[in-house]
User: Fold this.
Amino acid sequence: MKKYLVVPLIALMLAACAKDPVKPDLNTMEDATLAAWMAKYRPASEFNITKDDSGIYTRIITSADPSETEVVEAYNWLEIELEGMTLDSLVFLTRTADTARVQGTFTYFTHYVPDYVNMNDYAPTSYATTPYIVPGVYLKLWQMKVGDEWELYIPSRLAYGSSGSSYSGGYQGQYAVGANKPVIIRVKLVSITKDAEARELEEVNEYAQDNWGLQEADTIATGLYFQILDWDNVSENPVATSESTIYICYTTAFLDGFVFDSNIDTVRKRLFDDYTAMSDSMEVKSSANVVDALTTMLAKDTLRYGSWNRIVTTSTYAYGSDGSTGNTVIPPYTPLVFEFYIKEQIEDDE
Assistant:
């Protein structure tokens, strides 16, 4: 009898196994899906594509000049152009004004220039509207040289993971990235900077010399230049002191001339297509929540009521090593130009 019991027992065991198969993990399934997509739409034989051990596929769009020898090192600052798409070619990230216009996400406040990111040696960080360069881009940047432009096909574990992501600040496309979705990110390495502070100081010195005829000896402080534009008309005007409260009309721009902020209605209408009524002036005093360039000048007793002035400064007296987000993203270590009019002194009532 016992030999006849063996067959039913084996059958039950096989049936149990069939009901509970071992499922592949999410990464394995996604890798298979991405591999199938690549084979169909980006066959390696036609698109010069390679795959590395991490699961990232790389398509070489443009190679760096053979004479380019500088390599990316820890703590370098990189300028990179980025464009991100889903596998359905839906754009979710762009640093290009033309693409933003096509997507319908263009804004007049957005400075469409390469991203400026730091390559620290422990985690991929960026000032941008999401807190990280995706790990897949970070890994590949170490291998790139200036002039390289690569298209990366990145599995979600090295992209936006189980959370997905969306951008803002004018850099977003029409679409967000869903959870557990592979992405396509085109990356171009524009420049490598070893010392961000030294670079911006050089830029400010060159700007002041080329545009204003000033030399380093003319600085108010290192990396801070100041001019009164209508000195002959205001030389006898009262001086605003460190104890004063002044009211200014201003514009703020990057060194390339892109104006991104102003409280002057006519400027906002012309540049930003913004018809929101603004206050006719901004209050500035030594304790005010404004950039240090303005409070520094106020403290030095050099500002005169009724005068037009301009400042060019390194980030030391602006938004520093962190930069700023808002309507306009200001990268870390970014020089700025301020032009402002100081309203006439208001006499206190007796």
